Amino acid sequence: MNLYYEDVPATDNEAPQLPPLLRSEAMEAGTDVLAKAISRAAAGEVGLVCYSQAAHVLDMAITLAPEVPAARAQQMHYTMMNAVGDAIGALAPPEVGVRYSFPGNILFNRGHAGIVRMAMAPTNNPASDIPDWLVVSAQVRLAFADTNHDTEYRMANTSLAEEGGGFISRTRLLESSCRHFLVWVHQWEEEGFRPVHEKWLNRIEDDKTLTSQNGGQITFVGIDDEGAGLLSEGGAVRAIPLAEASELFGRAGLAELE
After folding, report:
1. How many CB atoms neighbour CB 222 within 10 A?
2. Which of 69, 75, 76, 77 is nearest to 127 (CA)?
3. Digit-coded pLDDT (tens) for 141-181
4. Domains of the chain
5. Quick one: residue 197, left, alpha or beta (phi over 0 = left, psi -120 to 50 = alpha)?
6. Exposed, middle or buried by CB within 10 Å (0-12, 13-18, 19+), for 110?
7. What is the mean predicted confidence (pLDDT) over 52-74?
């Protein structure tokens, strides 16, 4: 067990050691890792972990080949969130409280510190059509690259370094996230979405009021059996698939990326 240090410290240029089902490819800092992974997935590459060489942020994306309809394949989004949460829990001090906010925000002690996003090939009927490819990505702020943010920004956002996990390297967090991801995928294959769903809900932020891109206030109620968000607006609850939720709330990556 790690207590406030890495047993085997990693350097920024060290290639991650991944499980046999995955292989990694480094991208120059400033590269749109999600876009690169999408292009590689569309070309048929499966099990590729693209990651940025930027040292102050974990920016990674995994290419997948779904074997289930799009409506169920979206559950990989929550699988990745659980994996990142578990990886941080395994590496960081216990005071780094990891929470989630729908659809993909990762919070440390209520400060925004990361985001999980997903993209998949379009389908005509999500309930029955299997997408040709799927990509899940995660970004976690390890440290602030710009220390000149105003007080309001710093109050709303945080990083692993700010919360006492500054010793965690991008490489070790990438490795741990990938291992936990495969563990969750295996459990999902064996037991279905329920354990993924339950673990994700255990980390949901207490404040369930969300703000849409147009400034509207929406209440998060939960997620349904397929992974669509259950959102309440004006007293009416409706199920919003993740693709639609990304448009509703925005899907931009962390502002710290360079």
Report:
1. 15
2. 69
3. 999 887 776 777 777 899 999 999 999 999 999 999 999 99
4. 23-206 (3.30.930.10)
5. alpha
6. middle
7. 96
